[in-house]
Design goal:
Length: about 575
C-alpha cells in the first residue's frame, strides 16, 4: 500500500513537471500614450510599456508565448507578429479586419504567438491605421537550446531599429492624407533605436552609441520599421557581413552597404577591426518615384571603440548611394542567397499548381472639380490586379470561419485584367482608375504557388516591398521592365534562393516568389509602404483543404475582440 502511494505521488510529481515544462512564457504589453521629446519639441506618442521603440521579445526556435495586450490608449489597436507563421492559428496574427477586429480602448486581448521554423530576427508592430510609427519592437529568435548559429558565435548582439519621426502627431498626418487625397507629409527625421542622431537639432546628446572592443565581432539585428521608405545603411570604414534575412539564414555576403525595405530584417556581423576611434553608422532614403517628395535627411548613430584616445570630431560618415540609385538597391537585394546546407536545407517547390501574375500599381480616382491633392486634382489609390482593396466591416477570418456571407469576394484575378506595356513612360489615362472591392484568393491546402509581382508605371513607378503573412517564400527571380513569361523563368534560381517574407519589387520591375500553401487560414498580403497599403495595395489568401476552415484550424481564443 505504501509503495502504491509512493508510486502515485511520483506520477503526480512527474505530471506536474511535464506541465511546468510546457508552460508558455507570458508577457504584458500596455498600449498607452507617453510623452517624448525629439527635434526640440515634445509630443505624446503611442507606446508599448512606455518605450519607444517597444520592448524586445527573446524566444527560441519553436517556442510559444502569450502576450497580454492591454489597450489603455484612446485609439483602437492591433498587434502583428511580423514574419511569425502562426501555424494553424491566424487568430493572433493581428491585421485589422483581416484576422481580427481591433482591440478597443480599455479592452484586453491575450495573443498566443506560435514560433515554428523562424530563426534569427523578426519584429512586432501595430497593424491598424498608422499606429506602428511608434508601436513596434524587435523579436530575437535564438536557435533551439541544443543548437547553435551557423557562423562563429558573436561577442555581443544588438538590435538596430530604423524608424521615422514626425513633429506632428502621426494620426494628424494620417487623417490629413485621407482628407486631401494626396501624398502624406514626409517625416521630419529618420531614427536609429528611437534617436535621430547628431545631424538633427536638439539630438546630439541622446544619439544612440554602440560601444565596441577592438577585435570583437557584433551581431547587428537590423529592422526597418520606417513607415514609407527603403533605406541605405552603412558604417564608416567598416564592412558588414549579411548572415540572415527575415529570420532565415543566408550565405555570408560581405558588403560596405545594405539596402533594407520597410518590414524587412537583416542580420549582419560587424567586426571591430579598425583603429580605436568614433565612426558614424548612417541610414538615408532610397526613393525611386519621380516627383514624389521624400525625407532627404540622414540618421546617425556612433560606433565608439573602447580605450584611451582622442576621437575624431566629427566622426567620419560612410559613403551612401545617391537617393535614387536603383542599381545599388537591386544589386544588393539580388545577391542574397539561402544558406541551403545540410543543417539548414531548403525546399523550393518545383511542380507548380497555381501560377499567378499580380500587377501592383499606384492609381487614382477622380474628385469633384479636381479638388483633391493627387495628380491633376485626383485622389491617390493603389491596387493589386486593378482591384483596390476595401476593408470589410468585420474581419475576413471570422466571416469565413463562421460562414458569414457578404463580407468578401473570391474574384481576385489570377492575371492582370488588362495586358499592356506595364512599365511604359506614357500610359492611357483610363488605366489609372481601379475597381474597389474586398477580393481574396482561395488556395487549396498543400498546393504550390508561383506568384510574379509586376510593378507598373500607371501613376508613378516605384519600389513595392510586398509582405505575406503566415508564410515565408523563396524569391526565385527578379528583373527590371516587364516580366517575360517565356524567357525569365529560364533564369530562375531554384538552387539557393533567399527565403523571405518581404520582397522589394523594384521600380517598374518584377519579382517572382514560390511557396507551398501548407498553413491553413486567412493570410494578409500587402505593400509595406504604409500609404500604399492604406490606398488599397492589399489582398488576402484563404488556404483551405476543401472543407470549412473550422475543421483544420486551432480553436479561436475566448477573448477575440468584438466587431
Amino acid at each position: 500500500m505504501r509503495a502504491s502511494k509512493t508510486l502515485c505521488l511520483g506520477c503526480l510529481l512527474f505530471l506536474i513537471g511535464i506541465l511546468r515544462c510546457k508552460a508558455w512564457a507570458q508577457y504584458t504589453f500596455v498600449v498607452e500614450e507617453t510623452s517624448y521629446k525629439r527635434l526640440c519639441s515634445t509630443k505624446n506618442i503611442l507606446t508599448v510599456n512606455g518605450q519607444f521603440p517597444g520592448p524586445t521579445l527573446y524566444v527560441h526556435k519553436g517556442d510559444t508565448i502569450i502576450v497580454d495586450v492591454y489597450n489603455k490608449a484612446k485609439y483602437n489597436i492591433t498587434i502583428h507578429w511580423h514574419g511569425v507563421k502562426q501555424p494553424r492559428y491566424p487568430w493572433s496574427d493581428g491585421p485589422e479586419y483581416i484576422t481580427q477586429c481591433p482591440i478597443q480602448s480599455g479592452a484586453k486581448f491575450s495573443q498566443k504567438v506560435m514560433f515554428s521554423t523562424e530563426e534569427g530576427t523578426s519584429w512586432w508592430h501595430a497593424h491598424n491605421d498608422w499606429s506602428r510609427a511608434t508601436v513596434h519592437g524587435a523579436i530575437v529568435i535564438y536557435p533551439k537550446k541544443d543548437s547553435s548559429y551557423p557562423f562563429p558565435k558573436p561577442d555581443a548582439e544588438v538590435p538596430i531599429i530604423f524608424g521615422e519621426w514626425w513633429k506632428k502627431p502621426i494620426m494628424e498626418v494620417y487623417h490629413e492624407m485621407l482628407i486631401i487625397g494626396g501624398d502624406p507629409n514626409v517625416s521630419d527625421a529618420y531614427t536609429i533605436n528611437g534617436q535621430p542622431g547628431d545631424l538633427y537639432p536638439c539630438s546630439m546628446q541622446d544619439t544612440f552609441k554602440l560601444r565596441v572592443e577592438q577585435g570583437m565581432t557584433y551581431l547587428l539585428r537590423i529592422i526597418n520599421a520606417a513607415m514609407q521608405d527603403l533605406l541605405f545603411f552603412s558604417i564608416a570604414n567598416h564592412s558588414l557581413t549579411v548572415v540572415a534575412t527575415d529570420a532565415s539564414y543566408t550565405k555570408p555576403l560581405t558588403r560596405d552597404m545594405i539596402t533594407i525595405s520597410p518590414g524587412q530584417t537583416i542580420d549582419v556581423l560587424l567586426k571591430a577591426n579598425q583603429n580605436p576611434d568614433h565612426y558614424y553608422m548612417a541610414a538615408r532614403v532610397y526613393s525611386s518615384a519621380l516627383g514624389v517628395a521624400y525625407d532627404n535627411t540622414t540618421t546617425t548613430a556612433v560606433v565608439e571603440y573602447s580605450g584611451k584616445y582622442t576621437p575624431t570630431s566629427p566622426p567620419p560618415l560612410p559613403q551612401l548611394p545617391y537617393y535614387n540609385d536603383t542599381s545599388a538597391s537591386v544589386n544588393f537585394t539580388g545577391s542574397l542567397r539561402s544558406l541551403a546546407n545540410e543543417e539548414h536545407p531548403i525546399d523550393v517547390p518545383k511542380n507548380i499548381t497555381n501560377h499567378f501574375i499580380f500587377t501592383i500599381s499606384v492609381n487614382s480616382y477622380s474628385c469633384p472639380n479636381n479638388s483633391c491633392a493627387g495628380p491633376n486634382g485626383t485622389r491617390l489609390a493603389a491596387s493589386v490586379n486593378n482591384i483596390s482593396f476595401v476593408n470589410p466591416s468585420i474581419d475576413i477570418l471570422q466571416a469565413y470561419y463562421y460562414s458569414i456571407n457578404g463580407v468578401f469576394g473570391t474574384r481576385l484575378p489570377n492575371f492582370p485584367p488588362y495586358v499592356f506595356n506595364f512599365t511604359a513612360d506614357d500610359l492611357p489615362l483610363d488605366l489609372e482608375t481601379p475597381k474597389r472591392g474586398t477580393e481574396v484568393k482561395v488556395l487549396k491546402y498543400n498546393s504550390t504557388v508561383e506568384l510574379v509581382f509586376q510593378g507598373t508605371n500607371v501613376e508613378a513607378g516605384t519600389d513595392h516591398p510586398m509582405h505575406l503573412h503566415g508564410y515565408s517564400f523563396y524569391v526565385v527571380g527578379w528583373g527590371l521592365g516587364n516580366f517575360d513569361i517565356k524567357k525569365d523563368p529560364l533564369n530562375y534560381n531554384l538552387l539557393d534562393p533567399p527565403l523571405q517574407n518581404t520582397i522589394a519589387v523594384p521600380k517598374n520591375g518584377w519579382a517572382a516568389i514560390r511557396f507551398r500553401a501548407d498553413n491553413p487560414g486567412v493570410w494578409f498580403m500587402h505593400c509595406h509602404i504604409e500609404r500604399h497599403m492604406t490606398w488599397g495595395m492589399d489582398t488576402a489568401f484563404i488556404v483551405r483543404n476543401g472543407v470549412p476552415l473550422n475543421t483544420h484550424l486551432l480553436s479561436p481564443p475566448p477573448d477575440m475582440p468584438p466587431c
